[in-house]
Amino acid sequence: MDLIAYKTVKRKLKKAKYNSKIYLGDEMKVEYGQDGVHIKEAPCFSSDLIFDCGQAFRFSKNARSNWQGVAFGRVLEVSQNSDEIVLLNQSKEDYERIWRDYFDLQRDYDEVLDRFCCDELLQRSAEENYGIRLLRQQPWETLCSFIISQNNNIPRIKGIIDRLCKTFGEKIDEENYSFPDAEVLASLEPEDLAPIRAGFRNKYIIDAARKVTSGEVDLKSLYSLSLDEAQQELLKIKGVGAKVAQCVLLFAYGKQDAFPVDVWVKRVMTLYPQGLPEEVSDCRGIVQQYLFHYIRLHPQIQTLTEVEKAL
Description:
The protein has three domains: 3-128, TATA-Binding Protein; 139-251, Hypothetical protein, domain 2 (Endonuclease III, domain 1), CATH 1.10.340; 263-310, no CATH class. It has 14 helices and six strands. It has a six-stranded antiparallel beta sheet. By secondary structure, the protein is α+β, with helices and mostly antiparallel strands. The radius of gyration is 20 Å and the shape is globular.
């Protein structure tokens, strides 16, 4: 029995236990210790996949082989083994206020991925990438990061953002800096960003910072707007097109109807001339991230026949 079939059966057996409108994990247990928050039996959680699938750029492996980075102005180190995930040096308050939503732990990913069985490519992407969760990041940082991501590769994006934080962010400890507030960058000129080596993107970063600071683009208001309305607001910023706007609305606002299209997603969507299956119409954002990561790892797949061979 493959992974998806097994989880489908498991899901049916557990369904009688699932009566809550807000999913908290059928078996997930959260414990709080002196060293941090311990999450046991968390379904669909792979720190390797979460931090290395192109949705966030401030995390990397440290000397202990743990993922470490900065989010919400806090240093986060994540340790994971087969039994548990540990959010090191975090408190119960931190978990409930920040990290539970950040890791989207109130969404039932097993139920979502069960529906991927309707399609061979979706099923394969779920089997290979089981553990990807969409992060709920801070809007300003996400906007700025995806402006920087344009026509760029991940190592270079990470380098630019690291230099941006070290140059204009606030020092957290000897190694880590916060992401600079929009107000800080709004007072600068594009040439002031020369040390971060972002090139033509400098003027877009400054324009975004000024429009956010002035209120011309109200990031808080986007939570309550429809996808199209929110996208139109973001398009007021120079250098922000549909792809960047959709990335922001997916990775910061959690709008599941967002579907960012880059060269990889454009390629894979040629396999769906009639659009995605109806079964996954309400979780297009998650579908996009699974397909995006899968096709990057299998660039040779260009036809459904090649998908069938891969299976």
